[in-house]
Design brief:
alpha/beta; Rossmann fold; 6-stranded parallel beta sheet; 4-stranded parallel beta sheet; binds D-glutamic acid
Length: 277
């Protein structure tokens, strides 16, 4: 039987932070990674656009023998997860619920940095308050982060300046916990950590979605029965060379990246608006 894999997608290199967590937690699984680089950033797109992009990606992943999908993108998790879950025959996991659960475990004053679309959805605030309504949550949209990260400008002085501006309202509130509400942002951890008091705990939802995926695979009996998983397969909708350059730098090994033409999927009316998980 053909080996089945876990499909992981993001708009670009952000999902690599989730890929790393999955590789650590589930070393026996084969993974198919897709970056929708031709259409990034997702964080300034409309909910309708995001839902359409996600439908196209999932349709392609189904044709590629995928047994489970991890949305390694908070924006897609916030805006499309509830809508597409009913449309595809495999378990689909998002980042918001695992991130919210981790935040309320210790945090009482939680700051969330995320894309403008994720902040506008209110998904993190809602998910946190469903678990514990007494936790205070502040969310800040950071539209400049993804273009800076995709542009390989982590160490640019401008990145430090804009990061300080984004964090200031959260520091003013005396947060005790900061959620990286976009999978690109853990790449900025050294910059952000320097700006935060040492008492502030940073939450990377990637760690927790990987744990949730492991539990779900076990509960559904979907673990890979083969002892040797295939190396991760990478595909992008844009220029493979740009993605390869950044991804190799962050992952520390060389990759082959395919150019993927996503299938055309007819636009459907959105029947259920998502907030989470
Ligand atoms: N990394 C994605 C997220 O977690 C998308 C960022 C973007 O393309 O704006 O939201």
């Amino acid at each position: 039987m053909q080996q089945q894999h876990i499909g992981v997608f993001d708009s670009g290199v952000g999902g690599l932070t989730v890929l790393q967590a999955l590789r650590h937690t589930l070393p026996g699984e084969s993974i198919l990674y897709f970056g929708d680089t031709a259409r990034l950033p997702y964080g300034t797109r409309t909910p309708e656009e995001i839902i359409q992009f996600v439908r196209e990606i999932l349709t392609w992943m189904m044709a590629e023998n995928t047994k489970m999908v991890i949305m390694a993108c908070n924006t897609s998790s916030a805006l499309a997860l509830d809508v597409v879950r009913a449309e595809f025959p495999v378990p689909i996991l998002g980042l918001i619920l695992p991130g919210a659960k981790a935040a309320v475990q210790r945090g009482r004053r939680v700051g969330v940095i995320a894309t403008p679309a994720t902040v506008a959805s209110g998904a993190y605030g809602q998910a946190i308050h469903e678990i514990d309504p007494t936790v205070a949550v502040w969310q800040v949209g950071c539209p400049e982060f993804v273009p800076l990260i995709e542009g390989d400008r982590l160490h640019d002085p401008y990145t430090q300046t804009i990061a300080a501006q984004y964090l200031q309202p959260l520091l003013d509130q005396g947060i005790d916990t900061l959620v990286y509400g976009c999978t690109h942002y853990p790449h900025l951890a050294p910059v952000l950590r320097r700006l935060l008091p040492p008492t502030v705990r940073c939450i990377n939802p990637a760690t927790f979605v990987a744990e949730a995926a492991a539990q779900e695979l076990q509960a559904l009996g979907l673990q890979n029965p083969h002892p040797h998983p295939k190396p991760t397969r990478f595909g992008v909708s844009g220029d493979p060379a740009t993605f390869t350059h950044l991804a190799q730098k962050w992952l520390g090994y060389s990759l082959n990246v395919e150019n993927v033409h996503l299938p055309t999927v007819q636009t459907k009316p959105v029947t259920a608006q998502s907030v989470d998980v």
